[in-house]
Design goal:
The protein contains 11 helices and 8 strands. With about 290 residues, it is α/β, with parallel strands linked by helices. It folds into 2 domains: about 110 residues, 3-Layer(aba) Sandwich (Rossmann fold); about 150 residues, Rossmann fold (3-Layer(aba) Sandwich), CATH 3.40.50. Helix 2 packs parallel to helix 3 and helix 9 crosses helix 10. The radius of gyration is 23 Å and the shape is globular. The C terminus is likely disordered.
């Protein structure tokens, strides 16, 4: 089955896309063509959009799905009049919330991404710059300034997780890639032991790792299943020495990995102790 999904907003469209993508992810037997349509903030643009929806309906043989965050009722009515299945994401929540709070909503577009707290915005920008400057272990001398340090084999998800932690939580995240030199030595630099209280180890299923590495270096020894199995097994030996909490990223999204890290940090902060040391998973034997 093939369907076209439009993510429509009179502003940036980030909310419509995020919520819409989350809903579509529950229907993995359907192939979706995703169309991103921000700034539909005039009647002329709304009418042009209805034409695109009609073209999609004729091509697919079924009406497209529209995920929208449209606060302007006139523009919304134009889009709803088109050949589509329309879902207004704000409509579901705004009126019940207004009733509960006892005040009317402002109905101003773009508020969810406005810079309402400049200090937090500045903190996030600084965290993003920190993550980019301390990626791939280039500045281990900066680990003492990090809120989180990730360790793992190549392509296990370190860099995107660090950037997500910075962008969404304002955390200064650095990462250290395990190299052949580390594996030969069977250990990592002392700097990593010094920051064990904020260290998280990432692991991944070797088959999944092979698929990811194949996209980068197809047919190479680096991407072979044997190499992936060896790297993961040797990484677990190092994790045991570090006594680092391990997160398996095989079936987790970047958001889920990050939420696990943040939860562990918060739990440790509330308890006033070091990071919770969960029992390590059974060491893989390949």
């Amino acid at each position: 089955m093939r369907r076209t999904a439009f993510f429509v907003s009179e502003s940036t469209g980030i909310t419509a896309e995020t919520l819409g993508q989350s809903l579509l992810s529950q229907f993995d037997t359907v192939e979706f063509e995703r169309v991103y349509m921000p700034y539909i903030n005039t009647e002329l643009r709304a009418q042009a959009l209805t034409q695109r929806m009609q073209e999609a309906a004729e091509r697919d043989g079924v009406r497209p799905i529209v995920f929208a965050t449209m606060l302007d009722e006139q523009i919304r009515s134009i889009i709803k009049s088109g050949n589509c299945f329309y879902i207004e994401l704000f409509e579901v929540f705004i009126d019940p919330l207004a009733q509960e709070l006892g005040v009317p909503p402002s109905r101003k577009s773009g508020r969810s991404h406005a810079i309402t707290k400049p200090s937090y915005y500045t903190k996030r920008i600084e965290a993003i710059n920190f993550a980019m400057a301390n990626d791939d272990g280039v500045r281990p001398d900066n680990f003492h300034r990090a809120d989180v340090v990730l360790i793992g084999v190549s392509r296990s998800g370190k860099t995107p997780t660090c950037l997500y932690l910075a962008m969404h939580y304002g955390l200064r995240a650095a990462n250290y890639p395990l190299t052949e030199e580390d594996f030969e030595r069977g250990d990592v630099p002392q700097l990593l032991y010094d920051c064990r209280h904020k260290l998280f180890a990432l692991t991944i299923d070797p088959q999944r790792l092979q698929l990811i590495r194949e996209e980068r270096r197809r047919g190479s020894s680096y991407a072979s299943l044997k190499r992936c199995q060896e790297d993961i097994a040797r990484a677990h030996q190092i994790y045991k020495r570090l006594q680092a909490p391990v997160i398996n990223t095989t079936s987790l999204s970047i958001e889920e990995i990050s939420s696990q890290i943040v939860k562990t940090l918060k739990d440790a902060q509330e308890s006033g102790g070091p990071l919770t040391r969960e029992p390590l998973p059974i060491e893989p034997s390949y």
